[in-house]
């Protein structure tokens, strides 16, 4: 292919290559586009924004330390800030599944910012006044900037989206637990009748579980606040000013209002993706708990005529193309599907985590994609679950009472008085005759006020 009105010739250490004339990226990005036509997926806006934050902060730090000329540095900062704002998102064209460590993604950012900075300085995209490696990537490596971008993106998404979503879900479950506390019902273990419980107590368990995992995800932020910028290729801070690591992190703190810091061990930071692995594991635990809760709610709402029907879910949409009037627990099913994906993603992250060898983990792009997508999926699904399902759940007090009074487990209250063996006989008799525990006591002529009080569900909860 020859240069034309639609293409320009760019070059890199491997030689010359044609790049779309209007593209702000350059040769190395173009090679990645041609080599990795895999999924059509790109790293998300939050990651690109984080790359812009790093490049702007690096340029400012290098100017402050006298390593970068101010005219080039200011142009780089301006171009990087446009990346932060999302102006050049369509120029980030490298597939998620790319060369190891994310070198192509880093060069995609470097080339866009270099060419845009050159345009700012000279009015020409093709002046190449600012160099992608020498200037935009000064004092940096993919190996320290890529995980730093992941950490910055995770922190933003967790603090601004995921934690508020989890908090609101917990608050709504707590509100429902108070609303449903007067409703007595049969508990169930092994999916079989158990001693009584309040519907509100069940929901308080859900609220407590969500509160616990909220704090676990919150704790993951501490590791994510570590930024190994200046570690460069393997942690030896080669080709950087000695004050660069602290200077660039300080600038990022100013831009994000987040307490980022240098890692305790730069070499550990370079070798492993500890924080991402821990975060992914916490997200998996959240998904596991959400599956438990949504599965419970589907069971409790089953029916409405042939199931438990102890709660009623909001009616949102038709549930069948063949059965008129059928309504399915659509929001609960959606949440379950999201959680299945998140659990699968954690397996991908853990597997990629085992790829840490010597001074680097080269599977960083897939780790970034899966962790950030997990956060995004949960951040979208949980508010939908809260607003369109949890908030509208109603308790069916009459049905709960009927199931509870039929429960054979009420016989548990007789054990301290009559002994386990006689109580078991009474329970078996009730089961065989298909009558209640109270009716058996009446038939045997032993229903005393003490025994009647012992099988009163109110006293059991």
Automatic annotation (TrEMBL):
List the Pfam families hit by this protein, alphabetically.
Answer: FumaraseC_C (PF10415), Lyase_1 (PF00206)
Xref: Gene3D superfamilies = Fumarase/aspartase (C-terminal domain), Fumarase/aspartase (Central domain), Fumarase/aspartase (N-terminal domain)
Boundaries of each Fumarate lyase N-terminal domain copy?
Answer: 15-344
In the UniProt record, does the keyword Amino-acid biosynthesis occur?
no
Q: Which SUPFAM superfamilies match?
A: L-aspartase-like
User: What InterPro entries does this protein's entry cite?
Assistant: Aspartate_Ammonia-Lyase (IPR051546), Fumarase/histidase_N (IPR024083), Fumarase_C_C (IPR018951), Fumarate_lyase_CS (IPR020557), Fumarate_lyase_fam (IPR000362), Fumarate_lyase_N (IPR022761), L-Aspartase-like (IPR008948)
Task: Enumerate the spans annotated as Fumarase C C-terminal domain.
Answer: 410-461
- Give UniProt keywords alphabetically: Lyase
Q: Which PROSITE patterns does the protein's record reference?
A: FUMARATE_LYASES
For the keyword Lyase, the answer is yes
Under the heading NCBIfam families, the entry gives: PRK12273.1
PANTHER family attached here?
ASPARTATE AMMONIA-LYASE
- The protein's name is Class II fumarate hydratase
């Amino acid at each position: 292919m020859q240069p034309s009105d639609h293409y320009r010739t760019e070059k890199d250490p491997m030689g010359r290559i044609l790049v779309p004339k209007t593209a702000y990226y350059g040769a190395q990005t173009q090679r990645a586009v041609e080599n990795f036509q895999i999924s059509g997926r790109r790293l998300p806006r939050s990651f690109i924004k984080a790359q812009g934050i790093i490049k702007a902060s690096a340029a400012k730090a290098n100017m402050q330390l006298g390593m970068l000329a101010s005219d080039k540095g200011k142009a780089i900062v301006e171009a990087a800030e446009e990346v932060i704002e999302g102006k050049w998102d369509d120029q980030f064209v490298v597939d998620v599944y790319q060369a190891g460590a994310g070198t192509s993604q880093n060069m995609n950012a470097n080339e866009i910012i270099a060419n845009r900075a050159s345009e700012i300085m000279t009015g020409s995209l093709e002046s190449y006044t600012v160099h992608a490696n020498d200037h935009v990537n000064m004092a940096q490596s993919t190996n320290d900037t890529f995980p730093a971008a992941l950490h910055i993106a995770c922190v933003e998404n967790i603090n601004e989206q995921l934690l508020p979503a989890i908090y609101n879900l917990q608050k709504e479950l707590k509100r429902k637990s108070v609303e449903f506390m007067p409703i007595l019902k049969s508990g169930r273990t092994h999916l079989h009748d158990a001693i009584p419980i309040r519907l509100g107590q069940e929901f308080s368990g859900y609220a407590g579980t969500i509160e616990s995992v909220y704090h676990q995800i919150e704790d993951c932020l501490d590791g994510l606040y570590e930024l190994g910028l200046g570690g460069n290729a393997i942690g030896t801070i080669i080709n950087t000013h000695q004050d660069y690591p602290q200077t660039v992190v300080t600038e990022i703190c100013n831009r994000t209002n987040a307490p980022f810091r240098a890692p305790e061990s730069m070499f550990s930071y370079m070798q492993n993706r500890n924080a991402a692995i821990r975060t992914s594991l916490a997200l998996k635990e959240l998904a596991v708990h959400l599956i438990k809760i949504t599965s419970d709610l589907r069971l409790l709402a089953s029916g409405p005529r042939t199931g438990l029907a102890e709660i009623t879910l909001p009616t949102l949409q038709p549930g069948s193309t063949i059965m008129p009037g059928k309504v399915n627990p659509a929001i609960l099913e959606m949440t379950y599907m999201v959680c299945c994906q998140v659990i699968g993603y954690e397996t991908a992250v853990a597997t990629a985590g085992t790829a840490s060898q010597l001074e680097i983990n080269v599977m960083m792009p897939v780790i970034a994609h899966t962790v950030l997508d997990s956060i995004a999926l949960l951040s979208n699904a949980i508010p939908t679950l809260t607003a369109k399902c949890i908030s509208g759940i109603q308790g069916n007090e009459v049905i709960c009472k009927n199931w509870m009074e039929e429960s054979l487990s009420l016989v548990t209250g007789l054990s301290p008085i009559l002994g386990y063996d006689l109580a078991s006989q009474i329970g078996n008799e009730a089961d065989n005759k298909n009558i209640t525990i109270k009716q058996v006591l009446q038939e045997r002529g032993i229903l005393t006020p003490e025994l009647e009080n012992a099988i009163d569900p109110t006293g059991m909860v």
